[in-house]
Amino acid sequence: MDFSKELITWYRNNKRDLPWRDTNDAYLIWLSEIILQQTRVEQGMPYFYKFSDIFPTVKRFSEASEDQILSLWQGLGYYSRGRNMLKTAKKVMTDFNGVFPTTYIDLITLTGIGEYTAAAISSFSSNEAKAVVDGNVYRLLARYFGISIPINSTAGKKKFQVVANDLLNIKNAGEHNQAMIEFGAIQCKPKKPNCEICPFITSCYAYQHQKINELPVKLNKLKIRERYFYFVVIINNQHELLIKRRDNSDIWAGLYDLPSIEFTENTELPELLNHPEFNKWFKKTTSINAVSPQIKHILTHQRIYARFIEINEVDENIVNANDGIWVKLDQLHNYGMPKLIFAFLQKIHKLN
Ligand code: SF4
Fold first, then answer.
1. Is the CB of residue 116 less than 8 Å from the CB of residue 92?
2. What is the rounded CA–CA span in Å between residue 168 and residue 174?
3. pTM
């Protein structure tokens, strides 16, 4: 059986209509690929429309400020992607005369573009014969060929790349790669793959050996870190909120958040109120208007447990703002904030 031929036939009959598939513009493909990293298609789609609308060209993207990119990126997570995109757009303007590169060898030199993304952009935009291997492709290959080497081990990564290269249809690399990814995404899904209507049912190792739920194999390397935060919502009598910029050494790097104190375990309010850090923000005792219930927020490697303390209509003169800035509540959308914090403020203050 010609695997690629069968696969492409399936793809032409079953593919979803996605906006980045209607183009061979490497800039738009790059936008979609970075947005879709660690992100579901349904979640990424509105961001793709927003970014391609506001920045129809790499030149327009390169002229944006980091704050503008981060505020547009809000809610998508992994904010380093947005910052890296700005670096890359600027480099395309200076080093590639404003023309987004389409070859693997050029793409791999750009910030935020790894082997997978370089292979995807070069094959989708110019049909370069580079096989892509993402989570969807790992799953399909592991099941179809019965490969049980862990996909996140060094040996596994090498093995799967070799198998993907061997399968690649070099005359139609772009469509073959799109088809591999789409097949893994909607046919050979992680749970309950559609085996009964699969063109590979008679030759698929996992189906024939009842190993679908055992493949692919992944080493469980992740240790989830639990973090407990109190965020303090300080609003002055001008209806301005005190926000501050996070540094680049932790989650939400470069975004704006609220004054906060982190604990390593669940901590009751009196402990916060007696904490020296908390008292440093105020020149005299201040009354608290409300305390939120604990909100759980899940990141890939971390669990955040957050509570918000609200202090309203405080006299600005008694607050030690330090490096914070006061921002009108209706202007908050201009500042990139972690989704957890913006969603809380949006709900409490009915922001747009
Ligand atoms: S038969 Fe099932 S497990 Fe095998 S490739 Fe098809 S969908 Fe995936």
1. no
2. 10
3. 0.76
